[in-house]
Amino acid sequence: MARRAAGGTGVAGGTGVKGARRPEVRLPPLEPYGGGGLEPDGDYDGLEFRDAELTGQDGAGARFMDCALKGCALDETRLRHARFLDSALTGVRGVGTDLAEATLRDVELTDARLGGPQLHGAVLERVLIRGGKIDYLNLRTARLRDVVFEGCVLVEPDFGGARLERVEFVDCALKGVDLHAATLTDVDLRGAASLEISGGLDRLSGAVISTAQLLDLAPVLAMEWGIRVEG
Hints:
Layout: E1 3-4, E2 11-12, E3 17-18, E4 25-26, E5 31-32, E6 43-45, E7 47-50, E8 63-65, E9 68-70, E10 83-90, E11 93-95, E12 103-115, E13 123-135, E14 143-150, E15 153-155, E16 163-170, E17 173-178, E18 183-191, E19 194-199, E20 207-208, H1 211-224
Parallel strand pairs: 5-7, 6-8, 7-9, 8-10, 9-10, 10-12, 11-12, 12-13, 13-14, 13-15, 14-16, 15-17, 16-18, 17-19, 18-20
Antiparallel strand pairs: 1-4, 2-3
Pfam family, one: Pentapeptide
InterPro entries: 5peptide_repeat, Pentapeptide-BTB/POZ_domain
Protein name: Pentapeptide repeat-containing protein
């Protein structure tokens, strides 16, 4: 079983916002995945999926424990209700990957290239998403706790109705973020390289932003609140 040494929940930047606990996934020696296709409710333990072609396969309800997925194709792969535990996903790519209501716990996702991944209703706990680009990420009604987005590009991510607790954005480009009906607690946006919010500005209570970000958001806030700025 993988050993995890998560970071502490110290106060980020001395502002009173609680920092996210980061996973540190340490995998045991892995056996190569033998192929044959994913199976619904399958049990995958201690396997390495290297450059596996998983396009269109059905792994709904499957459990991945102490696994590594490297360079795998996940186009239209069905992983609804799947569980990824103590696992590392590196360089995965795909369009329309279905991870609705999945569970990711103690997971590192590195250099992913994903388009329209469906994670609505998912549960993410102690997850690090580092590098890569994710377009149209659907996290509606998801629950995120101790999640770090680092050095990645998120294009029009949808957090509508989601609950975010101890979530950090570090050196990320956030384009067109939708926070409609979301609940934020100890969410640190100060490290975002760029921050564009398309909806749900009223949900920023519970988040911390920098002075520069506040100035950048001022025109949108004024419009949201019906403030006329002249002169």
